[in-house]
Write a sequence for this structure.
């Protein structure tokens, strides 16, 4: 069975980055009813463009409709689903049994995947959804390796497992921190991430006295989970028969999507060839994109204090995203600028095959051939460069 690399697509630029760097499929959302309300997401017109591009390249796309709905949602949801039926995605990702029934009652025959938000933690729950007609189950991120293995051995349904990205400290689909603090419902895509905040303790008869909770002089972030990274375990997940390996991060940059997708493409290809050994380069590259330092989460064992980053909830970021290569011809490396580049900068170029090149900036030209001293985001420029660099390679500054 071919295993699928499934990447996040928060907008069209990220979708292109995912497919250029080796994703087999992407997941994306419309403007409503998905769980990342603050990502750019896709209009219906953009979805037509996205699916035409995906299918022309033999890739798949799944649309998230994974809110927990309220009664008042169904009118608008019906209208939206009728539009999606015309777009014809390869699957809908759903959490709510009511939404599941509504889709089937409406005779929308698009396959349904059950979202991790439905918090499926056992093989009987998988069978339950399969009996109702779900084609794939995205397992809860709170499962250990042995639990995943047991489920895989005891069901016939397609299974999808998260291998990389941010983790919730609470069980997926059961967290109400954001609802409680901000009246923003995480099960409707509005999470304000209070698990990343810094907390103090207040004794009830001493209002206003904030007692520190700290590990060291920087304080602590007691709910702040590190990010999941399971590259070491990709081979065994494939051996278990997991159909799809998923990367989290629709709100991350297109550089993040490109680098993480490119690394996992190499990991999966190596595992499929039976040559699996963790390459130090993969770890180094994963450390160049934003992360909260890495953990295996619940996979290797129950998560414990080593899964939490107590020191800071800020991202560690190892690079600045500066541009995307648009063409190479006759010694001219054309690129679309994403961040300011100055004379004298030392840049890295990373190709979709994950080859790395260094470029020292001695001259920058605008498209009229005029020399400029620095670049401005969203304009196009070129460098003179003697290596033929493939289109869609990314240009960045390693920090
Ligand atoms: S507050 Fe944190 S744990 Fe809760 S849903 Fe939001 S991101 Fe997840």
């Amino acid at each position: 069975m071919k295993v699928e690399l499934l990447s996040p697509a928060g907008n069209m630029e990220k979708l292109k980055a995912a497919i250029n760097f080796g994703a087999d499929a992407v997941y994306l959302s419309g403007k409503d009813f998905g769980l990342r309300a603050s990502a750019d997401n896709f209009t219906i017109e953009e979805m037509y463009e996205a699916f035409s591009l995906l299918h022309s390249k033999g890739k798949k796309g799944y649309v998230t409709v994974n809110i927990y709905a309220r009664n008042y949602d169904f009118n608008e949801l019906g209208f939206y689903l009728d539009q999606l039926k015309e777009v014809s995605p390869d699957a809908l990702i759903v959490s709510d049994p009511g939404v599941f029934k509504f889709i089937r009652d409406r005779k929308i025959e698009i396959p349904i995947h059950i979202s991790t938000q439905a918090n499926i933690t056992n093989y009987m729950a998988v069978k339950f959804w399969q009996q109702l007609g779900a084609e794939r189950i995205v397992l809860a991120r709170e499962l250990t390796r042995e639990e995943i293995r047991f489920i895989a051995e005891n069901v016939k349904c397609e299974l999808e497992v998260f291998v990389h990205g941010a983790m919730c400290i609470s069980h997926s689909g059961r967290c109400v921190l954001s609802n409680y603090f901000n009246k923003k419902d995480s099960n409707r895509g509005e999470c304000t991430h209070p698990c990343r905040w810094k907390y103090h303790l207040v004794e009830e008869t001493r209002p206003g006295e904030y007692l520190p909770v700290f590990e060291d002089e920087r304080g602590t972030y007691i709910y702040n989970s590190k990010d999941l990274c399971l590259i070491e375990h990709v081979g065994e997940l494939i051996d278990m028969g997991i159909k799809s390996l998923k990367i989290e991060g629709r709100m991350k940059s297109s550089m993040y999507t490109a680098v993480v997708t490119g690394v996992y493409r190499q990991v999966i290809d190596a595992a499929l060839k039976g040559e699996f050994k963790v390459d130090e380069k993969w770890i180094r590259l994963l450390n160049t994109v934003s992360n909260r330092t890495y953990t295996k989460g619940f996979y290797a064992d129950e998560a414990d204090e080593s899964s939490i980053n107590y020191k800071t909830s800020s991202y560690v970021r190892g690079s600045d995203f500066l541009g995307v290569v648009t063409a190479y011809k006759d010694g001219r490396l054309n690129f679309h600028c994403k961040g300011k580049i100055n004379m004298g900068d030392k840049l890295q170029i990373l190709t979709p095959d994950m080859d790395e090149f260094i470029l020292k900036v001695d001259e920058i030209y605008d498209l009229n051939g005029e020399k400029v001293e620095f670049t401005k985001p969203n304009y196009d420029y070129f460098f003179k460069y003697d290596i033929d660099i493939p289109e869609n390679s990314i240009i960045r500054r390693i920090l």
Remarks:
- The mean pLDDT is 92.
- Residues 168-170, 175, 177-178, 186, 191, 193-195 surround iron/sulfur cluster (CB under 6 Å).
- Residues 254-272 form the longest helix (19 residues).
